[in-house]
């Protein structure tokens, strides 16, 4: 079966700072047409970092689309031309003051593939050293440390409301359970 | 610390079929201002359903923002006023032809909190019966069945590129490992 939806007509709605918005008229596999709304984004990276004391470093920050704060693993947008591993190392150090000596790759996921192409690469590390914190000028974050039992409880009680953070926490629990 | 970013000025960029786009000029905690782009979405649901034969039901569909197909657990948008559990039951039956007698709640997560308020509720069920498939007229999906070892391999090999599906798979592996 050929699922492809070919663009017949495309309209640029908005070219912004972190997103571009397009409207596509597409032809469907059955010959009909449909409207598709597309939010383009350059991509992002996130890091689940474990300190020598066995604590995962999280950041609490205000997320304007939600109008409230969210607890997340450190994350950020790719700079133009930047590779994903370098971006992940940079974001971790900027937001937490810890530098990763190495990263393990958990996976690359689309958070909202129905309307956006944002691909987020998620990494894990317990190989970190002190570096230098350096937030963007419009960035305000508060670091929070979670123990493995905090993570276990947060997952069980469905308290994690961020997709990349839940993926990272479940990964940590799987790694922990497998090594028991 | 008060993280709130109050809107000083708001501009509506686009009011579409599944998304609305807004631009906010906000005041930051340090008194400066910044631009925030916000994609509003009504919310979504997804279901990881296990057949009596122990297989997870996935659907392969073309995702226009990615310009390729993606393998995902069945999911869909909330209808206006619809509660999340009913929406999850409806989407599962429409896309797979299976009806859930009950659902367990895995969690509610934001897929891209940096620019969108889309909240996706993820459920798990192994309590299903035959129902009636009924796709939307612009929806083309192909069902695929994964065994638990397919899931284990897909997670290990980082082959799952959809956030909600990776969360559901990791959940299944955690449940399975805990019950061993």
From TrEMBL, chains A, B:
Nudix hydrolase domain residues: 40-168
| Entry annotated with the keyword Cytoplasm | no
Which terms under GO biological process does the entry name?
nucleoside phosphate metabolic process; ribose phosphate metabolic process
Q: Which InterPro entries match?
A: NUDIX_hydrolase-like_dom_sf, NUDIX_hydrolase_CS, NUDIX_hydrolase_dom
- Name the chain's protein: ADP-ribose pyrophosphatase
Entry EC no(s)? 3.6.1.13
Instruction: Give the record's keywords alphabetically.
Output: Hydrolase
Keyword Membrane found: no
Gene name, per UniProt, is nudF
Quote one Gene Ontology molecular function term: ADP-ribose diphosphatase activity
SUPFAM superfamilies from the UniProt entry: Nudix
- Which Gene3D superfamilies does the protein's record reference? Nucleoside Triphosphate Pyrophosphohydrolase
Any one of the GO CC terms: cytosol
Q: What class of enzyme is it?
A: hydrolase
Its transmembrane ranges are: none
Pfam families, per the entry: NUDIX (PF00293)
Instruction: Name the coenzymes or cofactors required.
Output: Mg(2+)
């Amino acid at each position: 079966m050929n699922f492809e939806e070919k663009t017949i007509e495309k309209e640029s709605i908005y070219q912004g700072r972190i997103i571009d918005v397009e409207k596509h008229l597409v032809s469907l596999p059955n010959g009909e047409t449909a409207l598709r709304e597309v939010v383009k984004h350059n991509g992002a990276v996130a890091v689940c970092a474990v300190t020598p004391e066995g604590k995962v470093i999280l950041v609490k920050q205000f997320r304007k689309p939600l109008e409230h704060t969210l607890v997340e693993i450190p994350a950020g947008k790719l700079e133009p031309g930047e590779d994903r591993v370098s971006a992940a190392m940079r974001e971790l150090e900027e937001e937490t003051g810890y530098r990763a000596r190495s990263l393990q790759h958990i996976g690359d996921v689309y958070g909202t593939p129905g309307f956006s192409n944002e691909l987020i690469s998620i990494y894990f590390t317990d190989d970190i050293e002190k570096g230098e914190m350096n937030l963007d000028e419009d960035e305000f974050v508060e670091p929070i440390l979670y123990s493995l039992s905090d993570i276990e409880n947060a997952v069980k009680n469905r308290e994690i409301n961020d997709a990349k953070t839940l993926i990272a926490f479940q990964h940590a629990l799987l790694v922990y359970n497998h090594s028991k």
